[in-house]
Design a protein that fits this description.
By secondary structure, the protein is mainly beta. The chain is 4% helix and 57% strand. It has 1 helix and 17 strands. The chain has one helix at 7-15, and strands spanning 22-26, 29-32, 35-39, 42-46, 49-53, 58-64, 70-73, 83-91, 94-100, 122-124, 129-139, 142-154, 162-169, 173-180, 186-196, 199-210, 215-226. The chain has a 4-stranded antiparallel sheet, with no helix packed on it. The longest helix has 9 residues, at 7-15. The chain starts with 6 loop residues before the first helix and ends with a strand.
Length: 228
């Protein structure tokens, strides 16, 4: 006895092992297996598709748009947010090449690690104190964009006394530093592209007073994105 499965069932079963894979299902047509993905922090599901026509004698670019719709064109992948799936070449009425373009099946890899923290005002009359600490547990090796922001001020108005802030990775490497000697709030922010090895790490934003008086800090924030 033979059992025939519906096309959508086949796509669903195969997707368990090969989520998001693009494969030939006709001379000039493709199928896309179902897969789950995350876009801007929202978990979504693409349910798969069969019988999707492609253009002959061309490279065809297959991807999901920001709204989750399947797109096939011959001009290339967009520069806006999208999820790449594959490039497919067809010549003389038949598919001749399928190049897998899936990357972690997720758009916006820069949002894999994303932390923002803002706190109320603090004061400091001694040495370096931690204002915001970001723990990065078991992250993959990669290149990370680290951004920071805070507002700092000092109780007096003399160049010999000032409030300072710094950003450190693993309490060892300083990647950002600012000072402000005046009794008025001043923006202190910046960014750094930094290579981090696999494992657990910390990024801290600290502040101190130097020379006397009192240092103040507020609205301190840290953001870390993996970009490569």
């Amino acid at each position: 006895m033979s059992v025939t499965l519906a096309e959508d069932t086949i796509v669903g079963v195969a997707a368990v092992l090969q989520p998001g894979r693009v494969f030939r299902d006709g001379d000039l047509s493709i199928a896309v297996l179902r897969f789950n993905y995350e876009l801007d922090g929202v978990r979504q599901t693409y349910n798969g598709a069969v019988g999707q026509g492609i253009t002959n004698n061309s490279w065809n670019y297959i991807y999901l748009d920001y709204d989750g719709s399947l797109n096939i064109n011959t001009t290339g992948f967009p520069t806006t947010t999208h999820i790449r799936l594959a490039k497919v070449r067809a010549d003389s009425g038949a598919i001749t090449n399928i190049t897998d373009e899936r990357v972690l099946l997720a758009a916006g890899i820069d949002k894999e690690i994303n932390y923002i923290k803002s706190e109320g005002q603090s004061s400091n009359t001694s040495t370096w104190q931690e204002k915001v600490s970001l723990s990065l547990p078991s992250i993959p090796e990669g290149t990370y964009l680290i951004q920071w922001y805070a507002e700092i001020r000092h109780s007096n108005n003399t160049l010999s006394e000032y409030a300072a802030m710094r950003v450190q990775v693993n309490d060892l490497t300083e990647i950002g530093y600012s000072i402000w000697p005046y009794n008025g709030w001043e923006d202190a922010g910046g960014m750094n592209v930094y290579d981090i090895g696999a494992g657990s790490h910390t990024v801290d934003l600290d502040f101190e007073v130097s020379g006397g008086g009192t240092a103040y800090i507020r609205r301190a924030r840290l953001v870390v994105w993996r970009i490569a």
